[in-house]
Design a protein that fits this description.
seven-stranded antiparallel sheet; 3 helices; 7 strands; alpha+beta; globular
């Protein structure tokens, strides 16, 4: 299920948790899980980046089952992925890791963002626990040496 999100003034950090809560309460997550969940489970996907907005998907890997009404598919090309673990209650833990990826990791990593979607992968469990784990997957390419 997809929404378009403004990234202006950090609006995405407010809108996405609201969308995720709505999906949990309105049966979207349950419908996604019934459509065929693999080892990736339910995830969030950021894609179709524009200057001040992007699409955010609440998603599962399509396993060939029927796509629920009101939902769509998004093809994820093959990439090299940098994977970051976030530990702690949601949404703070994953929002913190997002900020650190772009402010700390990218400037010193020798990698740059590839032109592709970003994934948030959530482990099953209580998302409010201090030891809850989630992951951010960023498509990357090695920076050319000058």
């Amino acid at each position: 299920k997809r929404i378009n999100v403004s990234s202006k003034d950090g609006e995405n950090f407010r809108i996405i948790p609201e969308f995720c809560n709505r999906c949990s309460q309105d049966g979207t997550c349950e419908a996604l899980e019934k459509s065929g969940v693999d080892e990736m489970g339910v995830m969030g996907i950021c894609a179709n980046f524009k200057k001040e907005s992007f699409d955010y998907y609440m998603a599962v890997t399509h396993t060939g089952n029927e796509i629920p009404a009101g939902m769509e598919t998004l093809a994820i090309p093959k990439f090299t992925w940098a994977v970051f673990e976030a530990v702690g209650p949601m949404p703070d833990a994953i929002q913190d890791i997002w900020k650190r990826i772009f402010s700390e990791w990218f400037p010193t990593s020798g990698y740059e963002h590839a032109d592709g979607p970003e994934l948030e992968v959530y482990e099953p469990g209580d998302m409010s626990k201090p030891n809850y784990k989630s992951y951010v997957w960023i498509p990357v390419i090695r920076t050319a040496h000058k």
